[in-house]
Amino acid sequence: MKRTFGILLAGFLAGRAYVLAHATPFTAYDTSSYTAKVSLIGHAPRTWGVPALYALAGSDWARVCAQWTLGTLAWGVLATVLWHAFRHDIAKISAALAVLLLGLVSPVTSWDFALLSESLSLSLGVLAVALVIHALTAKSSLALWLAAGITVCWVSTRLDIAVFALGLAAVCAVMGRRGWLPAALIVAGVCWSLAIAPAVSDTYRAWAATGLPQTEETFLYRLRLEILPYREMKEAYEKQLGMPVCPGAERVASGPDWAIERFSQEYQACPELQAWARENMTTAGYRIALTHPGLFVKAFARSAAEMMSGPGYGATYAKPVHVIPEALERLIFQPRKAVLPVLLAAMAIAVAAAWRLRMRRSEIIVAGAVAAASMGSAAVTVMHTAGEYSRLGIQEAVLLRLAIILMAVAAVDVFLGRRAHYQPMIKQSRRAVTRGVKIIDAIR
């Protein structure tokens, strides 16, 4: 079986090498904010994770190679961990093949060539999950501490990773005393990122398209894309939260053009609206979700479909390089109309199998935490951001699929184990029945 795994891993490495050979670095409008400077205390336009990697790498091509290397390492480590975690050959092969394919699809590999935060965030997330699984299955304290350290680095790439980090901290905490200090380290990392967030937001204004702090500019995007264009949502914000009316901003929002600079000018020409936004922008999304759950669910379904389908369906970032057939990619990353029903159905089947088999395995614990964190993080993303959901939600899209794989393969592994356990008894019963039939025939 080691040879089988070697063949799978060699095929994965060959596929990744092909992608790298045909890759083209991609820079976006906000790439310069990641290459500007590094600060551990928030005196930079981005939290320190991605800028630190880019400063060490130097050139754009070196940054691409660093991201590709980390991604290749992360998926390879995860496949190796799962190969050793599962007991039966079918489960080992299924798990390794599934995660290595996931690491080869273009909605994942294309981010390695985009000079943005998504590649590093994906790689660190996959690596953290792999190490937590190894810490649980092999009872390795070293893997646990490595997972905690990597999770702290993961949070430093993007503040919205805090939901995932707290989920992994909870998994560490349930391990008992040996997991308490690693969990505390993760929580400290989250608190650190939250503490420097206001300084980062204020520093970002020099790189912003609108000249506003990052938090306020993000709310401006929400206002332009998710609030003013939708009558019910706009009325809820005005009546329930007391948002002032701004006719100029509403005029721009009702048009087909993005026109964010003009929208920003109209917004800043309404001082009452701007004052209200600065006071309420961090809590408005949560309050609407609590007071108008129906509206929130409708907005979540609309945004989550774009988020979970990944780039490639209208989104333009790094040029995709296809290693596996596009038809297979579309089975893994479904189009927007189908993605939510397919993922929800797959998750329901996996959860039902785990429940039916009364599974309490380490893989299920991690998969449950990752799935819950993926959905929770997706909800937080919808509450706080707007636009580019296929980019902002790529961690949720990939890790939710990973959680489904873990649950499904763990269920197969347990089923095969129980069948093997009862197989001798079944054979004895068949022999006893055969003997009984022969005795009855002899008596007759």
Q: Radius of gyration, rounded? A: 25 Å
Poorly predicted regions are none
**Secondary structure: number of strands:** 0
- Name the overall outline: globular
Distance between the termini: 52 Å
Describe the largest sheet. Answer: none
Number of domains: 2
Helix content: over 70%
What fraction strand? under 5%
How large is the count of helical segments? 22
Which sequence of SSEs, written as H and E, runs from N to C?
HHHHHHHHHHHHHHHHHHHHHH
Counting helices, strands and paired strands, the structural category is mainly alpha
Mean pLDDT: 89
Outline the structure in words:
The protein folds into two domains: 2-207 and 292-317 and 333-427, no CATH class; 214-290. The chain is mostly helical. Helix 7 (118-138) runs parallel beside helix 22 (394-443) and helix 17 (293-309) packs across helix 20. It has 22 helices and no strands. The mean pLDDT is 89.
